[in-house]
Task: structure prediction
Amino acid sequence: MENKIKEVYEDSVKNKVKGKDLISMPFNDFVKEHLCLIKILLEGSREDLINESESQKKELCKYLKERGLDFDEAKEEFGESK
Result:
């Protein structure tokens, strides 16, 4: 049992998100953004969906660029459905 606990602990330390792999935002902003996204996904017109998609892509590209990636590389590395 002790070895299993040690193994789980070592895995959790090894897989801990650090530095450049962590993107954070204030909780209130997170909630507001997701409420907006949910409303657009449920009730938005085709134009609303396209506009929000472009906005999300722009935000993603900003963070990708900071890490030396572009949108197409991210799609290839992370997959669109992963």
